[in-house]
Amino acid sequence: MPLKKLLFLPQDASNVKTYDCSFCSFKTKHKSYLPIHMLIHQDASEIKTHQCALCSYKAKRKGQLTAHMLIHKDASEVTIYDCSFCSFKTKHKRYLPTHVLIHQDASKDVKSAQNQEHNEKGYNESEGRLAIKSEELDIKEEEDECGGNK
């Protein structure tokens, strides 16, 4: 291991500085994570919210709004991730591994389910994502909580 990395490794867990939430038991060793966590304890009226320009959706975090905006895009404009075991399809990459777990045998772990999905769907390692053409799919649009399509 390079010397630079060794200098920053703590000798034991008791030497690691933690940043603690004053409202709950949340702890982190990353100073920048605490202000993000603290947003969950504040009322929406107390903090800046990110408003969707197309519906009434509001989010405390910009990343949540960015993810929400996928529901307003046509399927031809985004990558669609589909389950190789059933007809489930989603615009949100993060939902697929969780969904695949419902088909998984209890003896397998999450990583093997993800690897199987990558192999069956043509995982492109150089791009780090599943390459699926939306025009090849029969996509069923779902309605979300704000009345828009997913």
UniProtKB/TrEMBL annotation:
Compositionally skewed regions (Acidic residues) per UniProt: 138-150
UniProt keyword terms in alphabetical order: Metal-binding, Repeat, Zinc, Zinc-finger
SMART domains registered for this protein in UniProt: ZnF_C2H2
GO molecular function, one term: zinc ion binding
Family matches, as SUPFAM superfamilies: beta-beta-alpha zinc fingers
Listed PANTHER family: C2H2-TYPE DOMAIN-CONTAINING PROTEIN, KRAB AND ZINC FINGER DOMAIN-CONTAINING
The protein's name in its UniProt record: C2H2-type domain-containing protein
